[in-house]
Design brief:
Helix content is 54%, strand content 9%. The protein has helices spanning 10-38, 45-48, 65-69, 80-93, and strands at 50-54, 57-60. A hairpin with a 2-residue loop joins strand 1 (50-54) and strand 2 (57-60). It is elongated and about 60 Å long.
Length: 97
Amino acid sequence: MIQLRVSPTKGTVNQMSKEILAYVDNFTTELTKTLKRETPFRTGRASRGWNKPNKTTVSNTVPYINRLEQGYSKQKPRGFVNDSVRKAIRKTSRSIR
């Protein structure tokens, strides 16, 4: 039987936490850019509504953003947010390989 125990030091855990937060920050930045590009555009209000208030959050407070996500606009199909998330994952996952 072989048993290995990994006991990271406090410094290792802190470094890992910093790297994870940096990846999340990079991902949310890329997601914000992608959402702005993929949001149906008529007046531009919904697209401009995407913001990143902190390193871990992307939001849009435009009142009709949910309707656009549900396919109300003929410009973009239903689910453009999920599509944008997938695109941002693909793009940022390349940076960690």
